[in-house]
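Forgive a beginner's question, but would it be possible to get any protein sequence you like and the tokens describing how it folds?
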Amino acid sequence: MTIPAPGNAGAKPIKAFAGRPVCPARTRERLRDDARMDELELLDWRRRVSVLYAEIRAAAEPEAAWRRWRSARDDLFRSHPQSPLPAERRASFTSLPVFDYDPELRVLGDVVPSPGERLAIGSSGDEPILFRRFATVRFRLHDAERELALYWLEAYGGGVFLPFADAARGTETYGGGRYLLDTVKGADLGQEDGRLVLDFNFAYNPSCAYDPRWVCPLTPPANRLEVPVRGGERIG
């Protein structure tokens, strides 16, 4: 889950125009056109991600779905105008660093309702982001029972959000934590037999890991695992 940092409209910063008391009509028109283009580009990004995750949920073989996920994300990062990468890094970009696929990292979780506590989760920007903890998901990983909080975005339409951090954060994985589910952006691994699919091979870094122009919620203490999770995206 990421939003453009203040002063940006989508991926095109407009801070250069901030503070000017008068904006000529032609300039105002260009800014409006740029903003509309940014919004349509972001819509296209989300549409492509949603289609990708629909393919993942429908796939018969999880590792094949993971290879497709890797390829599609590399292509989006390399060529899409809403890529989290700064524009100057895209020409030399080859692929995102990821751990090898580990079938043991695909588990099913039991969802247990929570009282619905609202909390402001800290972000990479100046302001926290409001969520509601609506449930806890319990699962078995690395031969032990684990649990993570499930959050609901307290904004129009809402969405399920599952961030986590592991014991390798800051050395092998992104220090601010990674995301596993973010249905606002289409990242949804689905359910099996009424249980939530948690495949940590699909864990990915928030956009702010690549460029501070993006503002991302960071992983709260309740979602920090005490074991390393060597699946999904890692730091290069």
